[in-house]
Amino acid sequence: MDGSSGDRAVHPAIAPLAYLLGTWRGEGEGGFPTIHSFKYGEQLTFSHSGKPVIAYTQKTWKLGSGEPMHAESGYWRPKLDGSIDVVIAQSTGLVEVQKGTFDAERKIVKLQSELVGNASKVKEITRVFEVINGELSYVVQMATNLVTLQPHLKAILNKL
Fold first, then answer.
1. Engineering a disulfide at 117: which of 41, 42, 95, 138 sits with its beta carbon 3.0 to 4.6 angstroms away?
2. What is d(CA 55, CA 21) in angstroms, rounded to the nearest whole number?
3. What is the pLDDT of residues 85-141, one digit of tens each?
4. Which regions span the lipid bilayer (predicted)?
5. pTM higher than 0.85, yes or no?
């Protein structure tokens, strides 16, 4: 890229995850032993500023009404050794500090919470993002003080 079109060059540190860059939209479903299952619409955006970090934003809404449900944002910092640090602030006030790994060839990112802050009940969160046949899917698992780690959210999104 010569920069004349306004596009910033992707920093070498985030190049292995450049396939995530852009906006993804689709539907997901959630559940947990302590809540009723639900479906939702979702939009995820991964962007960059030329620095060695990916900015992440997410929002969900009720499928029927379009009423906003959840939002979160944060930063993904991939390292050259295949590890990644992620921080996410949720609209509920909960904060996640995640550590994980990525495999650029298989297009998979696995995250495990190091810290879940400002949460009275949530003890652990894992997230796995994977791109298969051009679709971004993820599974979020959660553990609380009453329930062991198990699936909470899953979705399939397509790039806009």
1. 95
2. 9
3. 999 999 999 999 999 999 999 999 999 999 999 998 999 999 999 999 999 999 999
4. none
5. yes
